[in-house]
Amino acid sequence: MKSLRHGGIAAAVLLATTACAGAGGGGGGAENSINVLMVNNPQMQDLQKLTADNFTKETGIAVNFTVLPENDVRDKISQDFSSQAGQYDVATISNYETPIYARNGWLTPLDDYFAKDTAFDQDDILEPIRQSLTGEDGKVYAEPFYGESSFLMYRKDVLDAKGITMPERPTWQQVADIAAQVDGAQPGMKGICLRGQPGWGQLMAPLTTVVNTFGGTWFTEDWQARVNAPEFKEATKFYVDLVRAHGEAGAPQAGFAECLNNMTQGKVAMWYDATVAAGLLEADDSPVKGKLGFAQAPVVKTESSAWLYTWAFGIQKASKKADNAWKFISWASGKGYEELVGKTLGWSKLPDGKRSSTYQRPEYVQAGSSFAKQAEAAIAGAKPTDPGVQPRPAAGIQFVGIPEFTDLGTQVSQKISAAIAGASTVDAALDESQELADTVAKKYRDK
């Protein structure tokens, strides 16, 4: 979702540290501290390291971080916010959760805060990202830490050695053909990395974009489940066959972090995933820096297929420290933080994809010369309300924007991951999944 992904994204290392000794948080404790529950992405780990010496030093507000892998943090956030326990003042939520949480009254609207905080510059937030964090009442309920879409990353040097030119907007068949040609191009190198790890924000994020462009959909406009329809099956078989034939080792357990490691270590020649990965691959300490090319998300029947995702910060409605929570969000999502990261960690490590001004920074444009324009174009071209070839009953590109999708997507992903592992077939996985999807659809048909 990292995307991600993104969709859903998860880093390889589990961190859980505190910035001060006090308990803090919405449930009580030191008045000048807040509790933040956060996904353990690399950019969040950077934020955690920079907070005490910068934000806390400037404001006197200590931050207690709880940092967990994506699947774990989603569960914990859902439990705390749905019960309004108030243990955490701020949490990382995505554009999937934000409208749902806002509808349920679990989040504090932020309009009054950014209206008074002119330095934050709300108008600078990219329009697709800003809209995705807006509730049905027109109020903004979260601010982005970074935004992302999806695109294809590839080893340009490997393709060049084979005499292969990657199209700027490749089709999935072209990608599959290239994967076959570069499989084994270097010792231990596979053709492509595609997520196979179960999770609605893991495997299902990239796979659903493939389903969309193959002409499939989870549900029709009138809530008919289509998970075992021909288009959905064709897309899923294509994905499963591709990763089984030319994908990474251990694909059924591979998520964003594992694919990032594979790409960084030269174990794969291509990777379709979140645009946010580009800055990590092009960082100064990356072994593949300068060897990469970037292309738009592969398509079949649609003009584009890239997802739209953001990890954002929301304030729990039950928090008794909303003012301090906003100060943290304003700092973490602000232009000044980008400047801090650029000067201390390197401009390619900016938490980008959220502000127009980011793409005007000369230092960032230079550091991201190989990927920044492609990433910006992918975000601008994402179509969350019209991602396929037919009308949809709910917004979302790599997800369906309904509360039930967390469980539905995860269960379906487990079945498809088993097919990647060879323990099942795509037909069996999707026939079983159709029953799950129809149970969800029936609730909406009966309303």
Describe this structure in words.
The chain is 41% helix and 12% strand. Helix 8 crosses helix 9 and helix 16 runs antiparallel to helix 17. The chain has helices at residues 42-59, 70-83, 97-103, 111-116, 127-132, 156-161, 172-182, 204-213, 230-246, 256-264, 277-281, 322-332, 335-344, 362-367, 372-381, 405-420, 426-445; strands spanning 2-5, 33-39, 62-68, 90-94, 143-148, 150-155, 270-274, 292-296, 309-315. By secondary structure, the chain is of the alpha/beta class. The strands form 2 sheets. A 5-stranded mixed sheet has the order 3-2-4-9-5. A 3-stranded antiparallel sheet has the order 7-6-8.
Mean pLDDT: 92
* Largest sheet geometry: 5 strands, mixed
| Count of extended strands | 9
Task: Please indicate the percent range of residues in DSSP E strands (runs of 2 or more).
Answer: 5-15%
Structural class computed from helices and strand pairing: alpha/beta
Q: What strand line-up does the widest sheet have? A: 3-2-4-9-5
Shape: globular
Report the helical percentage.
40-55%
Order of secondary-structure elements: EEHEHEHHHEEHHHHHEHEEHHHHHH
Distance between the amino and carboxyl termini: 29 Å
How much is the radius of gyration in Å? 21 Å
Low confidence ranges: 1-29
Number of helical segments with 4 or more residues: 17
Please summarize what this structure is:
The protein is α/β, with parallel strands linked by helices. It has helices at residues 42-59, 70-83, 97-103, 111-116, 127-132, 156-161, 172-182, 204-213, 230-246, 256-264, 277-281, 322-332, 335-344, 362-367, 372-381, 405-420, 426-445; strands at 2-5, 33-39, 62-68, 90-94, 143-148, 150-155, 270-274, 292-296, 309-315.
